[in-house]
Amino acid sequence: MKLKAFCICAALLLSILLPVQILPSFAAEPSAGEAALEVESGRLLYAKNEREQMPMASTTKIMTALLVIEECSLDDVVTIPAQAAGVEGSSIYLQEGEKMTVRDLLYGLMLRSGNDCAVALALHHSNTLDAFCKRMNERANELGAFDTHFSNPHGLPAKGHFTTAHDLAVIAAYALKNPVFSQIVSAHTYTIPDGGCGYARFLQNKNKMLCQYEGADGVKTGYTKEAGRCLVSSATRDGMRIVCVVLDSPDMYNRSGELLDKCFSEYKLYKLFDSNEYIVELNTDVPEKTCKCRAEKDFVYPLREEELASVRTEEDLPERLVLPVQEGDEAGNLKIYLKNQLIFSQKIVSIERKEKSFLDILREIGKRNGLVCGSTNFLQNAALQAGAPATN
Hints:
Elements lengths: L1 H16 L15 E6 L5 E5 L12 H11 L5 E3 L19 E3 H10 L3 H12 L2 H14 L22 H12 L2 H7 L3 E4 L8 E4 L4 H4 L3 E9 L3 E10 L2 E8 L4 H15 L1 E6 L4 E6 L6 E6 L3 E5 L7 E6 L13 E9 L2 E10 L7 H11 L9 H9 L6
Function: Removes C-terminal D-alanyl residues from sugar-peptide cell wall precursors.
Keywords: Carboxypeptidase, Cell shape, Cell wall biogenesis/degradation, Hydrolase, Peptidoglycan synthesis, Protease, Signal
Pathway: Cell wall biogenesis; peptidoglycan biosynthesis
């Protein structure tokens, strides 16, 4: 009986500590807007109503956090203003006058969805909420999120506050490439030390995907009556990181799990070019010498297995390279297509250093002047042309 009780307790403990795969026995109801992107390449892996504009609730805070991380010092100390204390909705209950670092406020923003943190950070960044929202919209346009408009830093209902599943995925994918952002949104817990309120704050991440989905590592939940349940989630498996957006989703966790499973099962990362390997050997203006060249960067891309046969390349290469050539010198251009769609373009560069010898120079001068290599006067005349003293 003791052994049986021990086994039951051990099983319960494991069920708490280990990630539980979200795999419902039924198909979760689709969301109003959905999109999934591979983070590094930005390839859209799945989409449904991805261009439809709709409110996004607290997933707004992804842009708020990104802007602050990019443009403020994490160690700046913020004195909480009255305007931030007592903001409606979710909060960490900031008190006017207490002091907190930007870093601590970011954890309060992203783990507990603090609307008060959003206002405090926005005012620290731009002095006014209007100025901060202007910068949010500028940054959205810079990232290519052209169907998005922000009217506040927290996501509470407001006129002119909307995004699309596609735009939000683009913003989140970019933000996840920032190591500070990525570290914050993947944290399960965080403790904010006492900043003058008389107690420390222990924060637990609201994003249940972190403990319910294998490989989950971000990012943000959201809910308002107008927006419905919204979730931006991310997960990494076998080196591939996918960000998934569901807006106005009746079953946001199960639906996100289904979409991530679908993308991970259908797509794999393929290394199409290795920058450590040469891909072409070019002739040079010295007939006996060639130069090996490589792709400037590695190129890894998510593909379905059946798509591999549809990948093709185009090289724009010179007839010959003119020496001298240094390692890393540009030698041409490489374009990669999936069917007829350009998916990547990069330089082809020299993998080695090649120079002309003195004899190569003499031969070149001799050729220009009609001298035949091996003739009696070849070396003497070529040397004179090169500026070297002739010898008898």
